[in-house]
Amino acid sequence: MVGDTPNLAARLQAVAGPNEVVIAASTEQLLGGVFETQDLGALELQGVTSPTQAWRVLSERDLTSRFEERSRDIVLPMVGREYELALIMERWERAGAAEGQVVVLVGEAGIGKSRLTRAFIDEAQKRDHYRISYHC
């Protein structure tokens, strides 16, 4: 393997101590906050033309979902989805009354499926429940 990426990976690996992982800025951004990281600052690495911002990966954060992580600081108000939320809550009530239910949220990216799910989870938190999450 040759090129910038394997060279950078080898240089960052050299910076890492035993049982440590050190990553570059591009990888840290891709993690989306799922891992706890420590900023190591801009490092001068042999064979790399400019200083490279690096992070040490410390641990995985205890999160329920990717949406939860990306929205942990600011949860925007839900707008225009009252009907859909009420429908999901009604199906949940039926399921609680031993009437089997399935809800499938389908739509293009960015229309608020995760936000609607978050609103449902917030409502369900107010009631007796047991939560199991699956992601794919």
Shape: elongated
End-to-end CA span: 31 Å
Mean pLDDT figure:
85
Content of β-strand: 15-25%
> N-to-C SSE series?
HEHEEHHH
Characterise this structure:
There is one protein chain. With 136 residues, this protein is an alpha+beta fold. It contains 5 helices and 3 strands; from the N terminus they run H-E-H-E-E-H-H-H. It has a 3-stranded antiparallel sheet with strand order 1-3-2. Helix 4 packs across helix 5.
List keywords for this structure.
single chain; 136 residues; alpha+beta; three-stranded antiparallel β-sheet; 5 helices; 16% strand
Q: What's the SSE blueprint?
A:
Elements: H1 4-15, E1 21-24, H2 25-30, E2 35-43, E3 52-60, H3 66-70, H4 82-96, H5 113-124
Helix pairs in contact: 4-5
Summary of the model, kept short:
The protein is α+β, with helices and mostly antiparallel strands and 136 residues long. Helix content is 37%, strand content 16%.
